[in-house]
Amino acid sequence: MTPGPTPATAVVAVDGPSGSGKSSVSRGVARALGLRYLDTGAMYRAMTWAALRAGVDLDDVDAIADTADSVRLGWSTDPDESVITVDGVDVSRAIREEAVTSTVSVVAAERRTRDVLVDLQRQAVRDAAASGCGIVVEGRDIGSVVLPDADLKVWLVADPEVRAARRAAEEMSAGRLEPNAYAAPASVVVRTVADELARRDALDAGRAASPTTQAPDAVVVDASDLGLAEVIDRVVALVVDRTTL
């Protein structure tokens, strides 16, 4: 009989809308349980960066698909690193710039690009399993499409205003907001970020290829009134409960 998963070998899918805290929570869970970590959003951002670098017309789906077929992505699955490369070039910071952020949903909607990246994502899970490790994979279609047999599927949500405030604070801390944003009232900055999050959510939920969807068997975790450590503890407890006989 094949042994069942343990907390140390669990495959965990974490999905949810922009700004819900997927990355921070997923990294924290991976650290707590000694698991690998995969940020699939960074993969789509890296592919978008590659398309922009090549001067691809983002209205040309064939050109976007050709980019996906031609570039070589590399990434770390260490939750304490945030490294992703395109053809050997470290683009970890570049993929967070506005040019990529504002267009990544367009590239992510291209079906053949998604096929390429889903294959890479599943290979990362197979590589972890072959090494006797579990993995936390975060994105928007992990539980519903990429890993429908994950040991635990989490749908992480938070109130729109909470998500916007957290994302605005994160972007300002990293210096990624436009300089004039710092002079604007905090409420204006948060509203601007909220509008952008809503735009991206609508694009991702409405695309034909693998729209953002809560898997039917996902456990909903609402982070609106919880601190990061509390959310991490809750997800860790869910992993332990699902994988401990």
Helix residue percentage = 40-55%
Shape: globular
Q: How many helical elements?
A: 10
User: Based on the structure given, which CATH architecture is correct?
Assistant: 3-Layer(aba) Sandwich
CATH topological fold name? Rossmann fold
Major β-sheet profile: 5 strands, parallel
Radius of gyration: 18 Å
Question: How would you classify the helix and strand content by structural class?
Answer: alpha/beta
Overall pLDDT level = 87
How many domains make up the 3D coordinates? Answer: 1
Spell out the CATH superfamily: P-loop containing nucleotide triphosphate hydrolases
Order of helices and strands: EHEHHEEEHHHEHEHHEH
Report the end-to-end length measured between terminal Cα atoms: 15 Å
Low-pLDDT ranges:
none
List keywords for this structure.
Rossmann fold, single chain, three-stranded antiparallel β-sheet, 13% strand, alpha/beta
Write the layout of secondary structure elements.
Blueprint: E1 11-15, H1 22-33, E2 36-39, H2 40-53, H3 61-70, E3 73-75, E4 84-86, E5 89-90, H4 98-101, H5 104-108, H6 111-130, E6 135-139, H7 142-146, E7 152-157, H8 160-173, H9 186-206, E8 219-222, H10 228-243
Parallel strand pairs: 1-6, 1-7, 2-6, 7-8
Antiparallel strand pairs: 3-4, 4-5
Helix pairs in contact: 1-10, 2-6, 3-6, 8-9
Could you walk me through the main structural features you see in this protein, from its secondary elements to its overall organization?
- Helix content is 49%, strand content 13%.
- The protein is of the alpha/beta class and 245 residues long.
- The chain has a single domain (11-240), classed as 3-Layer(aba) Sandwich (Rossmann fold), CATH 3.40.50.
- The strands form two sheets. The chain has a five-stranded parallel beta sheet with strand order 2-6-1-7-8, with helices on both faces.
- Strand 4 (84-86) and strand 5 (89-90) form a beta hairpin.
- The longest helix is centred in the last third of the chain and has 21 residues, at 186-206.
- The mean pLDDT is 87.
